[in-house]
Design a protein that fits this description.
By secondary structure, the chain is α/β, with parallel strands linked by helices. Helices cover 40% and strands 20% of the residues. The protein has helices spanning 17-21, 41-47, 60-70, 89-99, 122-139, 157-160, 169-179, 204-227; strands at residues 4-10, 28-34, 51-54, 76-79, 105-115, 150-153, 184-191. Strands 3-2-1-4-6-5-7 form a seven-stranded mixed beta sheet, sandwiched between helices. Helix 5 packs parallel to helix 7 (169-179) and helix 7 (169-179) runs parallel beside helix 8. The longest helix is centred in the last third of the chain and has 24 residues, at 204-227. 44% of the residues are buried. The model has no long low-confidence stretch (mean pLDDT 89).
Length: 230
């Protein structure tokens, strides 16, 4: 399992980090991206044994991109939230298709049968189903969940070239990976109730902003497909 780096974007997740990092395999290097937190996130992450890098621009995509840069030299990169929602035991199952040469990118599908009650609001589950179908129409990949847990070969990061600095990044990543012709698989993963309050689904205005941003990303890629651009 050498060469696996896990990138965890973190904005004010000091209370959630102990649950998020607990149980991480010793063969994984943990990189927590402190996204201009004000609650001591960086200090907690360091105390828990993670390498901390800073991204002053507040935005999910910006934090992920900083983490990907920090993971340079790795063979595989995992991206997951720093809120304790995922089970580290699923990482090995997600890595398997990559290591066996059957995939370039693996998405963790938060399968209904493995979701903890209350972990995913109904509107989020519905939105993910719609986004997955739209990805199929635009980029030819049928996904069930545009979720935050994914694993990829490090050498395809530049090929994908996702640039969005906000919450549109996960959708842009999926669309660009598909349009680049990469082999994409989904693996069912567990999903728990998060520690702390969600930055998006827990509040109405951030939820609206995220939805608008994703619509902008979808529209931009639909236009690019029609024009034959990248």
């Amino acid at each position: 399992m050498d060469g696996v780096v896990a990138v965890l974007p973190a904005l004010n997740e000091a209370d959630a980090l102990p649950a998020a990092l607990r149980g991480a395999p010793d063969w994984v290097e943990l990189v927590v991206v402190d996204n201009a937190s004000t609650d001591g996130t960086a200090a907690v992450a360091t105390a828990l044994g993670a390498r901390v890098v800073s991204e002053p621009f507040r935005g999910y995509g910006a934090a992920v991109q900083r983490g990907l840069a920090a993971a340079a030299g790795a063979q595989y990169i995992a991206i997951l939230d720093a809120d304790g929602t995922f089970d580290w035991a699923d990482l090995a199952h997600m890595l398997a298709p990559l290591q066996q040469g059957r995939a370039d990118v693996v998405f963790g599908r938060r399968a209904p049968c493995r979701r903890e009650p209350g972990a995913m609001p109904r509107h989020v589950a519905a939105a993910n189903a719609v986004l997955g179908r739209l990805c199929g129409r635009i980029a030819g990949v049928d996904l069930h969940d545009i979720g935050p847990f994914k694993v990829l070969r490090a050498d395809v990061v530049d090929l994908i070239g996702a640039r969005d600095r906000t919450y549109g990044w996960p959708l842009e990543f999926a669309l660009r990976a598909a349009r680049a012709g990469l082999r994409i698989r989904e693996v069912d993963v567990a999903y728990r109730v998060r520690a702390g309050v969600s930055k998006v689904t827990g509040r109405p205005w951030p939820t609206v902003k995220t939805a608008v941003r994703m619509l902008v990303v979808l529209a931009g890629h639909a236009v690019a497909v029609r024009r034959g651009g990248g």
